[in-house]
Amino acid sequence: MKPIEMLIPKERIGVLIGKNGETKRKIQKVTQTEITIDSKTGQVTIKPQNQQGAINMLTVKSIVTAIARGFSPEKAMKLLNEEIILEIIDLEAQIGKSRNTLTRIKGRIIGKNGKTRQTIEQYTSTHLSIYGKTVSIIGDYQDVLDAKKAIQLIINGASHGAVYAYLEKKAREKQSKEMRTFKISDKI
C-alpha cells in the first residue's frame, strides 16, 4: 500500500511526537503503522507495518489531522472508534479572507470566557478546536452534524440565544429518542 503523506503546522509537530516520543509511539503501536515526521518541514509520512496497519492508515491520517488542527492527542485518539468522525469547517472558504471578520467569527464561536464553545460541546457531546482558519469537530456522526449546524448558525449571524435554543431542541430530541430506544429494549 502506498504511504500517506501530509503536512502539519510546525507548531503542532511537538504535540504529535509527544514527550520523549510517547504520543507517536502510542499511535504507531495501537494502529500498527509507522509514522515519520520531518521536524523542519512538518511533512508526515504514514506507512503500514502489516495488513492491519494498512487498514488503519486512514484512521491514523484522521488522528494526525486532528492533532494538526489543535486537538490534544487524547481527544484525537477518540477517532480510533470507527463511530467517531472528524469534521473540519474552513472558515476562510465561507467568510472570505478578511482578518477582522475571521477574528470576529472565531470570537463568536468561542464566546465570552469560552461559553459558546462549551455549550456546543456539552449539548452535542463533541469536542471543538478553533485553530487557524478552521473549526474542527470530533464526535459521532449525528452529534457532529448538530454541532456543525450550530457553528453554521453563528457564522451566518444568528444570535447566541437562537443557537442555544437550537442546541437545547436537538438535545431534547436526542434524549427522547434514547428513551424510546430504552423502553423498546426493556420489552425485548
Kindly describe this structure:
The chain has 188 residues and is α+β, with helices and mostly antiparallel strands. It folds into 2 domains: 4-80, Ribosomal Protein S8, Chain: A, domain 1, CATH 3.30.1370; 85-184, Ribosomal Protein S8, Chain: A, domain 1. The protein has 9 helices and 6 strands; from the N terminus they run βααββααβαααββαα. The chain has helices at 13-17, 22-31, 51-68, 73-76, 91-95, 99-110, 115-124, 141-155, 160-187; strands at residues 4-7, 33-38, 43-48, 84-90, 127-131, 134-140. The protein has a 3-stranded antiparallel sheet. A hairpin with a 4-residue loop joins strand 2 and strand 3 (43-48). Helix 7 (115-124) packs antiparallel against helix 8 and helix 8 (141-155) packs antiparallel against helix 9. The protein is globular. The termini are far apart.
Q: Are there runs of 5+ residues with pLDDT below 50, and where? A: none
What portion of residues is helical?
55-70%
Q: What distance separates the N and C termini?
A: 45 Å
Number of strands: 6
The string of secondary-structure elements, in order, is EHHEEHHEHHHEEHH
Strand content: 15-25%
Largest sheet: 3 strands, antiparallel
| Overall pLDDT score | 93
Give the overall shape: globular
How many individual helices? 9
Could you say how many structural domains there are in total?
2
Please identify the structural class as seen in this structure: alpha+beta
What's the CATH topology label of the largest domain? Ribosomal Protein S8, Chain: A, domain 1
Going across the major beta sheet, what is the strand order? 1-3-2
The CATH architecture of the largest domain can be given as 2-Layer Sandwich
CATH superfamily of the largest domain: K Homology domain, type 1
Specify the CATH class of the largest domain.
Answer: Alpha Beta
Q: What is the alpha-carbon Rg in Å?
A: 19 Å
